[in-house]
């Protein structure tokens, strides 16, 4: 088990996990945790998996790390105790499901949260803003499509990264991605504009609103 076995989206998550006790939620076979432990990037890893078969695979894959790793069978943050971990990662799910996981046990969410949703990260950015988390960093990684990866950090007050940006556009497309004029985001936004313009009912208020946000994002990126 080594870094080369990870897809680019998970390699990015690995690089952003801070040193300490880390839990991977929906860990599947625990390849991410295995790489983190193998490279001594974390002090201890906890794999959380709700399905029996991947849970048992995670157990086997983590055996060699002995008391530095464990796997727990359960849903979301349920198997964790409040304050037990320094950071968590949630990868390969829809953003809406990730928000439900984070909201279900808000008292167990640590100060560092790294997420890799398989769709728009907007619900996660809204969750962060409503729960006093700042967007520490975010990127788009190449895979089957462009996967967003975001690192949230608990912090008081308004997130300064949104200052000077149209809030709705920044929540939809990502404040850091807009600020650095990310080429992957530009490509995505251009495709979104074409898709929206091709819709038969472009006069629909919701479609029109989406198109306005896309065009505003394009102006910021070009």
UniProtKB/TrEMBL annotation:
UniProt GO molecular function: methyltransferase activity
UniProt-listed GO biological process terms: methylation
Keywords for the protein's UniProt record, in alphabetical order: Methyltransferase, Transferase
The keyword Transmembrane belongs to this UniProt entry's keyword annotation: no
SUPFAM superfamilies on file: S-adenosyl-L-methionine-dependent methyltransferases
Organism: Deinococcus roseus
InterPro entries, sorted: SAM-dependent_MTases_sf, TrmK
Name recorded for this polypeptide: SAM-dependent methyltransferase
